[in-house]
Design brief:
There is one protein chain. With 220 residues, this protein is α/β, with parallel strands linked by helices. The protein has helices at 15-26, 40-50, 66-76, 91-100, 112-123, 135-145, 158-168, 173-179, 184-198, 202-213; strands spanning 6-11, 31-37, 54-58, 81-86, 104-107, 128-129. The protein has ten helices and six strands. Strands 2-1-3-4-5-6 form a six-stranded parallel sheet, with helices on both faces. Strand 5, helix 5 (112-123) and strand 6 (128-129) form a beta-alpha-beta unit. Helix 4 (91-100) packs across helix 6 (135-145), helix 7 packs across helix 9 and helix 8 crosses helix 9.
């Protein structure tokens, strides 16, 4: 009797990364790569066309982000299990992805055995979180599951969101204070409060969060 293989689609905009992952997967007798995509849009199309068991989805991709692709795939092909592949360990990233409907989360810096275990787990209907993710992130996942609103952005006040949007777009604290007609100290406090709630640090992580929220695509 022939074994049913786990059918997998790979979506990553770096061809060399896809080639490496494909080689690892195809060396396993119980799984095979049936399609490859360069961006989130291709990932969505392949998920619909090929109906794989699992799609390994890079989160940072052009045209359509992995986050948007994940949400779209779960709405249109809900039976496909999504395994997010990323270098990010931020709470904001993980919580956003869980809300989008992913079944697993694997860090790019992990060993190949971790990814193979994750593929098998999500293909069988389970959930998988990379062991490299800290206990503090597990705690926020548990808290988020009891929150009917879900996404990290909901944790912020409207003013905190406004301040972060402006920081992500490159404005200094002083410029934001002038734009919002308030004191520099107030802006610094609101920014610090937002970063603490999201557990992110520095402008680069603020920009990453803004990308996930789709802020740079607004008001084009």
């Amino acid at each position: 009797m022939k074994m049913t293989q786990i059918r997998i689609v790979l979506a990553d905009d770096h061809k060399i990364v896809r080639s490496g992952i494909k080689k690892i997967i195809d060396s396993e007798i119980d799984m095979t790569v049936v399609g490859e995509g360069n961006d989130g849009r291709e990932a969505i199309l392949l998920a619909r066309e090929l109906e794989p068991h699992v799609i390994v989805l890079d989160i940072s991709m052009p045209k359509v982000s992995g986050l948007v692709a994940a949400g779209t795939i779960k709405r249109t092909v809900p039976e496909v299990s999504i395994l997010a592949l990323t270098r990010h360990t931020d709470k904001a990233y993980l919580q956003e992805l869980l809300q989008a409907g992913i079944s697993g989360y694997v860090l790019k810096q992990s060993e190949s055995d971790v990814m193979l275990q994750a593929i098998r787990t999500v293909a069988n209907g389970g959930q998988f979180l990379d062991p490299g993710i800290s206990d503090s992130i597990f705690s926020i996942i548990s808290a988020g599951q009891d929150n009917s609103t879900g996404t990290p952005a909901i944790l912020l006040t409207e003013r905190e969101l406004d301040v972060l949007r402006r920081v992500a777009r490159g404005y200094s604290n002083k410029e934001i204070a002038n734009q919002l007609d308030t004191s520099l100290k107030t802006i610094e406090m609101q920014k610090a409060s937002a970063l603490k709630k999201l557990d992110i640090r520095g402008r680069s992580q603020i920009v990453d969060f803004a990308i996930l929220q789709g802020w740079f695509e607004e008001n084009k």
